[in-house]
Amino acid sequence: MRRPSAQYVFFAIWVLILCTSPFTGSNYMVRVATNIALFTVLAQSWNFIGGFTGYPSFSTAAFFGLGAYAGAITQNMGLPLVLAWLFATVFVTVFAAILGGVILRLRGHYFAIASFALLEVARLVIASATEFTGGGNGMNVRLFPGGPDVVAQVFLYSMVTIMLATVGLTIWVDKSRLGFGLRCIKQNEDAADMVGINTTLYKIIAYALSATFCGTVGAIYASWVGYIDPLDSFEILLTLKVPVMAMLGGAGTVLGPVLGAASFSLLEEVFWANFLEYNFAILGFVIVVLIFYLPGGLLKVDYRPLWRRLTGHTSSREPAE
Amino acid sequence: MEFQILINGLVLGALYACIAVGFSLVWGVLNVINMLHGSFIILGGYITFFAWSLLGINPILMIPIAGAILYGLGYFVQLGVINKVVSKPVLVTLTLTFGLDMILYNFMNVAFTATPRRVTLDLGSLEFFDIFLPLDRLLAMVLALALTGLLYWVMQKSRVGRAIVAVRMDRDAAALMGIRVEHIYAITFGIGALMAGATGAVFAFIFPVTTNLAGLYIGKAFVVCIIGGLGSVPGALVGGLMLGVIESFAGHWLGPQHAITIGFVLMLVLLVVRPTGLLGKKGYE
Fold first, then answer.
1. Fewer Cβ neighbours under 10 Å: the N or C end of chain A?
2. Each residue's pLDDT tens digit, B215-244
3. Chain B hits for A292, Cβ within 8 Å
4. For domain B2-116+124-273, is the CATH number 1.10.150?
5. pTM
6. Range of the domain at A288
7. What is the dihedral of CA B65, B67, B70, B71, to 10 degrees?
């Protein structure tokens, strides 16, 4: 798992598995695949601010929920599906850039609290703007025409497309000056500022990027399920789950969030099927295991000793790379 | 009418201060945002409720008992789990306490279900100059203020309190002076949990006891800490009273559904304008 090229091969296979799920599995599998793509987008987006920049952002659910409502409202006003999704994307990005300019002046604990507060305020505002959003009763979104199989495939491929876009963006950021600057900020913000990185601008870009595709998948989600309400769209659990997924795979790596979102979602499916009552506790246990046993995430684990044991290779340790 | 709203706000504010004071202590000394705090309050409430309904123990008597049980829980959670990552970045500590909160929340939900329960004291109410004040609320307010005052006294006068303040001011210097920092961390977290448990016991006879309220309580703790400033008892008291009064008036003028929003918006503004809070200081005094 050390060479990136091998990772990309695994990633390509994984995308292929997700894309072929309508032909190989039941509608349930398609649903799982769509959900995995959705969470991959969220985790990958969080990675920009939380992974690369090291800012503990807990506002993912705010972006997701605002995207869902922006998409749903414009779609109900008569905007075509894709344009509504596009509008949600732009809206959430601008929203994040403006608010980022305000709350990114804070650091550490204060930033974390502010990002939580953003989520609460967004939810409360949406819940009280009854004439646009239906308030606590939620709102219906026009259903996508066509049979269940067609609908399932349309939304699966939409989610996977956004997922590929997010990964592509991550690859670009990782290699670009921006990514370098963000890593510098993570290491030492004051020093980064000193050597001439425009830290304010870079942080705002990272925060906006962490929102962009959350807005898109929020809007897609709204069209997909056809009904949204404030508690569901601005779920506090989501805002915790997404950073956990990213960290589980490996925060700040390119494909870590993909691995994290996939493994966490599959784990959750297994547990939901068997221990429905304990779905909160499972997230808690995953967090405890993650923090004490996998501090760098699954991608950072050295699998070679395990591999050698499995293949029966008993030669002495290879020299370190 | 305005006077009634003010009284309501002050009663609510004293309770908010009581929620926040333990949370603020842990945040200030350990630099850990304790997401468990809301669930600790609920757990204290359940202990009180079941002691009252099953064993017939007076809820006021349960305040120290619930506090002591929660102290033990908090002490060992800190010693066994959180101490190992206490100096890690906020993302790690916050995620960990959030995760622990999920576990506690889930087990409470399964064990007790989310059905709201309540201890009823039936004390009647007080009426003077058009002011209406239920006596159980007044009692809760007095107890909340007493608890907050007690913590202040412990911090100021006791040996442990001074050790906690010393660790907050300078961890390394405190260690050199012979203070066992890890032990003090565990005690501090224990005291935070104790305050939560005692708060839960007080709340049990004025608010319903249900896991659904854990999120609301932790939200209040955030806001009060930001308004009043971190890690000081007077700060939490001022922040709590201010939030109570503001919410009370905002609820009256703008409608109750906006009262919570106002609190959070105020917090966001204060965070940006004055992140140390209104009474923010460096040391824990």
1. C
2. 888 888 888 888 887 777 888 888 899 899
3. 84-85
4. no
5. 0.88
6. 4-311
7. -110
